[in-house]
Amino acid sequence: MTAPASEGVEIVRDFAAPPADVFEAWTTAERFSRWFGGPAVDVPLDRLAYEPVEGAGWAATMILPDGNAMDWAGDFVEVQAPVRLVLTITDAPDAPERATVTVDLSPAPIGTTMRFTQETPGFSAEQQQGLVAGWQGFFDELAAGLPARG
Q1: Exposed/middle/buried for 133, CB within 10 Å: 0-12, 13-18, 19+?
Q2: Which of 30, 22, 29, 5 is nearest to 114 (CA)?
Q3: How many CA atoms lie within 13 A of 115 on its CB side?
Q4: Strand, coil or helix: 138
Q5: Cα separation of 143 and 46, whole Å?
Q6: CB within 8 Å of 97: residues ≥ 6 apart
Q7: How far, in whole angstroms, is CA 136 from its chain's centroid?
Q8: Structural domain 8-144, CATH architecture
Q9: pLDDT band at 150 (very low <50, low <70, confident <90, very high)
Q10: pTM of the prediction?
Q11: Distance (Å, whole) CA 58 – CA 53
Q12: Cβ count near 16 (within 10 Å)
C-alpha cells in the first residue's frame, strides 16, 4: 500500500523476515549499503558514514550507473531496536532542509510489516510518485538481502 499526500508519502510493506532482521538491514552500514539505491547503484562503504545513534549524523555517496555521484546526508533522530528508526535525509547536504523518514516495524504473520513514511514538503504529486517508486525499488533489494524466515 502506498499513499501520496500533501505532507508526505507512506509505504506499507511486508517482509518474510523477523523485525530484528529488517531493523538490522536499516541500521548496519554494510547491509544498508547493499540495498540503499537499488540494484544498479553502488554505495561504497568507504563513502558511507552510518552509525545509527540518536543525534549522530550520517552521510552516503551513491555511484550511479553513469558514473556520476549523488551525495546524501541526515541525522538519526530516534533509534529503538527492533521496532522504530527515525532519521532525516537530503540529497543536498549543504542545504539546511531535511525530510524526516520514519520506519516502524511490527511482527506480522509473514514476518514483518514495515510502515515507512517520508515528508515531502514542496513535492508535486508526480515527484511523490517518483519517490515512492524509488523507495519501492530500494525495498525490493532490502527484501532480497534478508535471511529467509525460519
Answers
A1: exposed
A2: 22
A3: 8
A4: helix
A5: 24
A6: 90, 121
A7: 10
A8: 2-Layer Sandwich (3.30)
A9: low
A10: 0.93
A11: 10
A12: 15
Which helix (H) or strand (E) segment is 80 a member of? strand 69-80
All three cell numbers of 117, joined, read 513514511
Instruction: Tell which phi-psi region holds residue 142, choosing left (phi > 0), alpha (psi between -120 and 50) or beta.
Output: alpha
Sheet holding 111-119, edge to edge: 8-15, 111-119, 99-108, 84-89, 69-80, 57-63, 48-49
Query: Which is it for the CA torsion 4, 113, 118, 146, positive or negative?
Result: negative
Q: What is the pLDDT of residues 86-121, one digit of tens each?
A: 999 999 999 999 999 999 999 999 999 999 999 998
Compute the Cα dihedral for 99, 56, 49, 18 and give only its sign: negative
Q: Nearest 5°: phi and psi at 138?
A: -60, -45
The answer to whether residues 136 and 50 touch, using CB atoms and an 8 Å cutoff, is: no
Element (H, E) at 125: helix 125-144
Residue 48: phi and psi, rounded to 5, are -130, 115
Q: Hey, is 54 helix, strand or coil?
A: coil
CA–CA distance, 26 with 22 (Å, rounded to integer): 7
Q: Domain ranges in the chain? A: 8-144
CA distance 138 to 52: 19
